[in-house]
Write a structure and sequence with these properties.
The chain is α+β, with helices and mostly antiparallel strands. It has 3 helices and 4 strands. It has one domain.
């Protein structure tokens, strides 16, 4: 009889033990939620960077199909980019300096500002340097940009 009484009183968990277990579980779930929030933000940033890189590469390829004598500096806003990134629009700006292999941008602050001008550092005939920058603002309003350089040879000039 004593054994049955002992078993009846020691079965299951007390209310305090259950509450402590729930608090521990709550902290674990909150940690996972915070990690998920950070991961989703990182995914959005990497998607924006990927789209900016693809837009830059596409424009570089376009500039390489234009005859050497016709390439010039410019700016555009690709319309399809906003649909790919949930409404974020991108601006592409490119600087072309002919007979040059190395350039410097004046008043450069890693934006696509119209105030930025290109200047040649190293002159080389029949070669043009192209610097292309894709700029965007993220959902928090922070400015971002990705910049690429490429060199274009004047095919018509010969060797």
């Amino acid at each position: 009889m004593k054994i049955l009484s002992y078993i009846r009183h020691n079965s299951g968990f007390s209310l305090i033990e259950v509450m402590i277990a729930l608090v521990v579980l709550l902290f674990g779930i909150l940690g996972v939620m915070a990690m998920q929030y950070i991961a989703v933000g990182g995914n959005a940033a990497s998607r924006e960077l990927r789209v900016a890189t693809v837009l830059a590469q596409t424009k570089i390829e376009d500039l390489k199909t234009i005859p050497y004598d016709s390439i010039a500096s410019g700016t555009d806003v690709p319309q399809s980019s906003a649909a790919l990134t949930g409404g974020i629009s991108f601006t592409r700006r490119w600087w072309v300096v002919k007979n040059c292999i190395d350039l410097t941008l004046t008043q450069d602050n890693n934006t696509c500002s119209a105030n930025i001008n290109a200047a040649c550092n190293t002159a080389v005939s029949n070669v043009a340097i192209i610097r292309l920058r894709t700029c965007w603002k993220d959902r928090n309003g922070a400015d971002h940009s990705v910049t690429f350089d490429t060199i274009r040879w004047d095919e018509g000039a010969g060797l």
